[in-house]
Amino acid sequence: LAVMSLAFVGIPAAGVALGMKYGFAAYQRARILSILLPGKYEERDYMSWMAREALGRCRLVGGSGSEFFLKTETAHTDFVFLNLLAGFGILAGILVILLLACLVGKVFRISLRQQNQLGQMVGVGCGLVFCVQILECVGMNLGLEGVRSTLFLPFFSYGNGSAVVFYLLLGLVLSVYRYKDIPRKQKAGMHRKTFS
Distance (Å, rounded) from C-alpha 66 to C-alpha 31? Predict the structure, then answer.
């Protein structure tokens, strides 16, 4: 197990290190450094710098008048949380984060109370997907991380693919909750529902 985890971390890290030294062009090295060290390489990451500028103009309640992000092409997907802060204020952003945190907490609570192991694994996996997407998207919008593409804030970002995936994950969690009373060890064919 330790060898497998070392391989999953070591091989990509070695590839990036070799690429940084020998294979990548200057703009590729700059992009990787701006992702790994977002505060140090702001001049190379324009969108992250603009996110910090727009965040500095946000008010506690109400719009900030920051029109830049409302005009960008990623305003409704990657920077939806920053647009929410700019349009409705910091309190609205805190409310959204609290609602999403309650959703993730409920998903993990449902998952960890399952009697069957498959339900636990499916539920925890769905909860981790929600959690990682929320943390990555909010961190990117607040300028804590470098800008990456294809990050969506669950149930807020626009896009047919992301909406379908998040609703599918939520449906899996609801299915896990529905069958919460199935015992851990059960012989095949013993539990059949009859519909009348």
Answer: 26
Could you tell me if 167 and 159 are in contact, meaning their C-beta atoms sit under 8 angstroms apart?
A: no
Condensed to tens digits (0 to 9), the pLDDT of residues 55-84 reads 777 777 776 666 555 566 666 677 788 888
Query: Helix 117-141 to helix 160-178 angle, to the nearest 10 degrees?
Result: 150
Q: Which two tokens stand for residue 52?
A: 């910090």
pLDDT in tens, 162-185: 888 899 999 999 998 988 776 656
HEC string of the chain equals: CHHHHHHHHHHHHHHHHHHHHHHCCHHHHHHHHHHHCCCCCHHHCHHHHHHHHHHHCCCCCCCCCCCHHHHCCCCCCCCHHHHHHHHHCHHHHHHHHHHHHHHHHHHHHHHHCCCCHHHHHHHHHHHHHHHHHHHHHHHHHCCCCCCCCCCCCCCCCCCHHHHHHHHHHHHHHHHHHHCCCCCCCCCCCCCCCCCC
Q: How far is CA 7 from the centre of its chain?
A: 25
Nearest to 142 by CA among 94, 70, 72, 76: 94
Is there a contact between 145 and 139 (Cβ–Cβ < 8 Å)?
Answer: yes
pLDDT digits (tens, 9 = 90+) for 7-66: 777 777 777 777 777 777 777 777 777 667 666 655 556 666 677 777 777 777 776 666
